Protein 1
Amino acid sequence: MITVYKCELCNREVSQLTEHHLVPKERGGKDFPTANLCITCHKQIHALYTNRELAARLFTIDRLSNDEKIKPYFIMLLLLFLHSSLNKKRLMLQLLKH
Ligand SMILES: [Zn+2]
Ligand SMILES: [Zn+2]
């Protein structure tokens, strides 16, 4: 059986989660809550923001998901999702034809 986890940021179901310190450890976040994120989201966050930005204003999932800078990433995820479900539909239609 495959265990499925849910990413707290993009809400996708994934096979592996990583722990993100909402306030980076080097900014004194050792005792702050962590969030369980998929690898893609986690990489994206650290590519977009510095630890200082994360500690100063993006220390909750809510704040992160409403930030302007991360919106294009969510749009991309949505497009990818639509794309893959369209392909699935096409595949189904193809299968039905035969
Ligand atoms: Zn995610
Ligand atoms: Zn992190």
Protein 2
Amino acid sequence: MPVKAPGDAETLREHFAWVYGNLAMTHAALTEGASSYGRLHYMIRGRFRKGYLTGTMSMRPLTDDERTKIEHGSSCCYCGARGPLTLDHVLPKLTGGADAAENISYACKSCNSSKGPRDMVLWLVNRGRFPSVLVFRRYLKLAAQAASSAGLLDTPWSEVPGDALPFDKRSLRVEWPALAEFEMWPSASGGGPHV
Ligand SMILES: [Zn+2]
């Protein structure tokens, strides 16, 4: 069921709604162990997208993501590796990400130094690995908070200055991969669903 992604003239809010809907769709499909998206999943996407835009739905608080972080506290949130972990700012401090617990995740040394001050989503996509659902969800909430504090939610995407926010706005337009490429949380083997 092809649905048009937001274009240049549409606002950041529209873009957040789009990704929010996509994440809800993928989350639902993974939770029920589906092998591909079905009608119901597309309906969920539409409902969440619209709900976010009309204000009847909002992103759940970051405390949920803190719980997830603790549950998965023994593996890197980007590649799933175990072993010595470091603290990584999801939205880089260098680009204005907050030095607060909700913006800090556990990452292996290799991911932490490779990511550096880069945007998390674009960095992972460039490495051929889409962010897992739970990691993208945390990122999306942080990014939406930042855009809201900057008063840019209702600015058309193309008019948002590239350096105005602690994330890269292009992350809201990444091509959404097939369901088989998603994981709820990254596994060390990399990509694909658990068998
Ligand atoms: Zn890693």
Protein 3
Amino acid sequence: MRGTNHPPAHDTAPEPAHGDPLRDPWVPAVRRALVEALAAPATGDVPVGAVVLGPGGPRGPVLATAHNEREAHGDPTAHAEVLALRRAAERLDGWRLTGCTLVVTLEPCAMCAGATALARVERVVYGAVDPKAGAAGSVWDLLRDRRVNHRPEVISGVLAGECGEPLSRFFRSGRPATGPGTGPGSGAGSAVASTGGSPDGS
Ligand SMILES: [Zn+2]
């Protein structure tokens, strides 16, 4: 993580592996969220992770991290995004997360998209899409609905494949079923198609 910046070795191909100016800057933050996601299955939770970065875009300080803890606490609202937003607000000593970015491995559900807008987050960056319960462009697009007065910027599909992989694996391996409607929800397992995971818990 340290060392000299950009050794000028290749003048012609500075970014050989990528080349997406919109998404590439967010890759490190999404990877951080992925590390969080991988901790969720320890409690039977769907592997979704989130990070809140303070003002400064991709280089903003990490204010909070969280993973799905719905099963861990028996709390239907304990989605990674909500927990991360709460922790960031505690850290800032206020609910307005102005200038902050919510980074999450899976497209937010309706609850989390709503919480994000209420927190006045400036931007939402996510990895895999959730075609069954996503509320940031898939099933709904709450974050860009013109009727809402605060509309964060949305950047989707950052490391989508890598973010979806743990979800696929989780559902493929047979998650502990705790009842009907054990949907993912911030943990949505519906994300990556063909996972066989249940749809959002609603
Ligand atoms: Zn959610």
